[in-house]
Amino acid sequence: MPRLTVGTTPVQLAWANPKRKFWSVEFIPASVIAGNTGLIYLKRGSAPSADINSNSWDTVLKAGDQEADNKDGAQPECPYKGAVYAVSDTADQIINLQEVNVEEKQT
Q1: Which domain holds residue 82?
Q2: What's the total number of domains in the chain?
Protein backbone atom coordinates (compact mmCIF):
# COMPACT_ATOMS: atom_id res chain seq x y z
CA MET A 1 0.00 0.00 0.00
CA PRO A 2 1.79 3.13 -1.16
CA ARG A 3 2.14 6.18 1.05
CA LEU A 4 1.52 9.46 -0.70
CA THR A 5 1.91 13.08 0.32
CA VAL A 6 -1.03 15.42 -0.12
CA GLY A 7 -0.44 19.14 0.13
CA THR A 8 -2.21 22.38 -0.60
CA THR A 9 -2.14 21.81 -4.36
CA PRO A 10 -4.68 19.22 -5.62
CA VAL A 11 -3.23 15.85 -6.70
CA GLN A 12 -4.70 12.94 -8.59
CA LEU A 13 -4.50 9.86 -6.35
CA ALA A 14 -5.97 7.29 -8.72
CA TRP A 15 -6.60 7.32 -12.44
CA ALA A 16 -9.74 6.01 -14.11
CA ASN A 17 -9.60 2.21 -13.98
CA PRO A 18 -12.24 0.00 -15.66
CA LYS A 19 -10.89 -3.07 -13.79
CA ARG A 20 -11.12 -1.58 -10.28
CA LYS A 21 -12.54 -3.89 -7.60
CA PHE A 22 -12.07 -1.42 -4.72
CA TRP A 23 -10.05 1.58 -3.60
CA SER A 24 -9.39 3.20 -0.25
CA VAL A 25 -7.61 6.23 1.17
CA GLU A 26 -6.49 6.19 4.82
CA PHE A 27 -5.32 9.43 6.42
CA ILE A 28 -2.62 8.13 8.76
CA PRO A 29 -3.28 9.15 12.39
CA ALA A 30 -1.21 11.90 14.02
CA SER A 31 -0.16 9.33 16.64
CA VAL A 32 1.79 7.57 13.85
CA ILE A 33 2.90 10.62 11.83
CA ALA A 34 2.98 13.68 14.09
CA GLY A 35 2.60 16.17 11.23
CA ASN A 36 -0.78 14.79 10.11
CA THR A 37 -2.88 17.50 11.71
CA GLY A 38 -4.84 18.96 8.80
CA LEU A 39 -7.87 18.01 6.77
CA ILE A 40 -7.87 16.18 3.44
CA TYR A 41 -10.60 16.86 0.91
CA LEU A 42 -11.42 14.02 -1.54
CA LYS A 43 -13.34 14.27 -4.79
CA ARG A 44 -14.34 11.71 -7.38
CA GLY A 45 -13.88 12.96 -10.94
CA SER A 46 -12.27 16.38 -10.44
CA ALA A 47 -9.97 18.30 -8.12
CA PRO A 48 -11.54 19.69 -4.92
CA SER A 49 -10.68 22.88 -3.11
CA ALA A 50 -9.44 22.89 0.49
CA ASP A 51 -12.35 24.89 1.85
CA ILE A 52 -14.82 23.43 4.34
CA ASN A 53 -17.46 25.89 3.09
CA SER A 54 -17.06 24.82 -0.54
CA ASN A 55 -19.23 22.27 -2.31
CA SER A 56 -16.29 21.12 -4.43
CA TRP A 57 -15.46 17.99 -2.38
CA ASP A 58 -17.17 14.65 -1.70
CA THR A 59 -15.53 13.75 1.62
CA VAL A 60 -13.36 15.44 4.25
CA LEU A 61 -10.93 13.26 6.21
CA LYS A 62 -9.39 14.01 9.61
CA ALA A 63 -6.26 12.13 10.72
CA GLY A 64 -7.21 8.49 11.28
CA ASP A 65 -10.22 8.57 8.91
CA GLN A 66 -10.69 6.40 5.84
CA GLU A 67 -12.76 6.64 2.66
CA ALA A 68 -13.35 3.66 0.38
CA ASP A 69 -15.57 2.21 -2.33
CA ASN A 70 -16.40 -1.52 -2.13
CA LYS A 71 -13.78 -2.06 0.61
CA ASP A 72 -15.68 -5.09 1.92
CA GLY A 73 -15.69 -6.64 -1.56
CA ALA A 74 -19.43 -7.27 -1.40
CA GLN A 75 -19.82 -6.19 -5.03
CA PRO A 76 -18.00 -7.96 -7.86
CA GLU A 77 -16.64 -4.60 -9.07
CA CYS A 78 -16.21 -1.12 -7.66
CA PRO A 79 -19.21 1.09 -8.45
CA TYR A 80 -16.86 4.04 -9.11
CA LYS A 81 -14.13 3.51 -11.70
CA GLY A 82 -13.13 7.12 -12.35
CA ALA A 83 -10.27 9.31 -11.12
CA VAL A 84 -9.89 10.23 -7.44
CA TYR A 85 -8.36 13.57 -6.34
CA ALA A 86 -7.25 15.06 -3.03
CA VAL A 87 -6.04 18.32 -1.53
CA SER A 88 -5.22 19.33 2.04
CA ASP A 89 -5.53 22.53 4.00
CA THR A 90 -2.08 21.77 5.46
CA ALA A 91 1.18 20.92 3.66
CA ASP A 92 2.69 17.43 3.58
CA GLN A 93 -0.10 15.23 4.93
CA ILE A 94 0.63 11.50 4.53
CA ILE A 95 -1.98 8.99 3.35
CA ASN A 96 -2.11 5.32 2.40
CA LEU A 97 -3.73 4.58 -0.95
CA GLN A 98 -4.93 1.12 -1.87
CA GLU A 99 -6.47 0.03 -5.15
CA VAL A 100 -7.22 -3.55 -6.17
CA ASN A 101 -8.28 -4.74 -9.60
CA VAL A 102 -10.79 -7.43 -10.50
CA GLU A 103 -8.96 -10.68 -11.11
CA GLU A 104 -9.06 -11.75 -14.71
CA LYS A 105 -10.19 -15.31 -15.36
CA GLN A 106 -7.77 -17.55 -17.20
CA THR A 107 -9.21 -19.45 -20.15
Answers
A1: 3-101
A2: 1
